[in-house]
Design a protein that fits this description.
- The protein has 7 helices and 14 strands.
- The chain is an alpha+beta fold and 328 residues long.
- It folds into 2 domains: 137 residues, Trna Endonuclease, Chain: A, domain 1 (3-Layer(aba) Sandwich), CATH 3.40.1350; 166 residues, no CATH class.
- Strands 6, 7, 8, 9, 10, 11, 12, 13 and 14 form a 9-stranded mixed sheet that branches. A 5-stranded mixed sheet has the order 1-2-3-4-5, with helices on both faces.
- Helix 2 runs parallel beside helix 3.
């Protein structure tokens, strides 16, 4: 089955129950159960199976918070869980400890688990799973998916799922960003600046480039919705346009045949690449923050077009690749 993408559950108890069902499914058993109830002493675990000698700790995280803080918390969570189990061993035997989180994975967590096992002399193995691994495992269990993601249907094609994902995000944006999207930029009562984050960035608010030499977070102004996604203003520039509407970015030698028009470059993020957003912002930037997949050569953008900022010079409002010409 192809890898599917599902948003992490927004409830810690549901995340715990999902984990229990997933392990029962993966190990073909019904022996996994949640350990105690809220308020009970859990000795560092949430789910276990004595028959399979496996203990699981679930660490649900609110992903609207700073990725750096979440990462720091997870390191502390891993250490705390292991320390509790060593100090107060479980009455049921186990040889494998799994620590699962709704946050993203990072190689640092795997290395830390190995170091901890060696330094503390753990008698059990320690395995860390982030949401990427969890959702990959979930793809093989349609009945579990149906329980926690009722809108999912294993009979749907990938294209049908993609359409639903796009439309769902489009409707959310239309509702949550109405104060921006329903007005021209000059008529908005709220600032258009947003903060764009890569979901893989763990350095914010420090600027660090990814493997494609692109920054992993930055500011951009929200523009408008299109059929493919959400557009952001990135910069102002000039293009050269013929009377017929053909245009180029390169200044032509015979510039008399072209009009120079000031335009705003608009880069579009696909609806399916928007993982989530936080309308309130954080202590660094009090404006909406978008968390995106930077999977297009290190950037989140799938297409670019230009918006005419000098309409009096030409009747065309937008310029895209369909009318672009390449000058030699």
């Amino acid at each position: 089955m192809a890898d599917l993408q599902f948003p992490p559950l927004n409830n810690p108890k549901q995340f715990e129950l999902l984990t229990c069902d997933l392990f029962n499914g993966m190990l073909d058993t019904v022996t996994f159960k949640t350990f105690g109830k809220n308020g009970h002493r859990q000795k560092g675990i949430d789910v276990f199976s004595a028959a399979k000698t496996v203990a699981v700790q679930c660490k649900w995280k609110d992903l609207s918070r700073s990725a750096i803080l979440i990462k720091k918390e997870l390191f502390a969570d891993i250490d705390d869980t292991v320390s509790k189990l060593l100090k107060n061993p479980l009455s049921v035997p186990f040889v494998d400890l799994f620590i699962l989180t709704s946050a993203s994975e990072h190689p640092d967590f795997d290395e830390y688990c190995n170091e901890l096992k060696r330094e503390k002399g753990c008698y059990f193995n320690i395995t860390f799973w982030g949401w990427e691994t969890i959702q990959r495992k979930l793809g093989g269990y349609p009945s579990i998916l149906k329980t926690y993601y009722p809108d999912y249907s294993p009979k749907q094609s990938d294209s049908e799922q993609l359409v639903k994902t796009r439309l769902s995000m489009k409707k959310r944006l239309e509702s949550d960003f109405a104060d921006w999207l329903n007005y021209a930029v000059e008529n908005r009562k709220r600032r258009s600046r947003m903060i764009i984050h890569s979901i893989d960035d763990t350095h914010y608010p420090v600027h660090v480039k990814n493997a494609h030499d692109e920054y992993q977070w930055y500011a951009a102004e929200i523009n408008r919705l299109s059929k493919n996604g959400l557009g952001f203003f990135r910069q102002l520039t000039d293009i050269y346009v013929t009377n017929g509407g053909w245009w180029t970015e390169k200044k032509p030698e015979n510039v008399v045949e072209f009009k120079t028009i000031r335009v705003a470059r608009v880069d579009v993020v696909a609806f399916e690449d928007i993982v989530d957003y936080d309308l309130r912002g954080d202590e660094h930037y009090l404006c909406p923050h978008f968390y995106l997949r930077f999977r297009h050569n290190g950037q989140p953008f799938i297409e670019t077009y230009y918006q005419n900022m000098e309409k009096e010079k030409g009747g065309f409002l937008f310029f895209d690749d369909t009318s672009k010409i390449d000058l030699l």
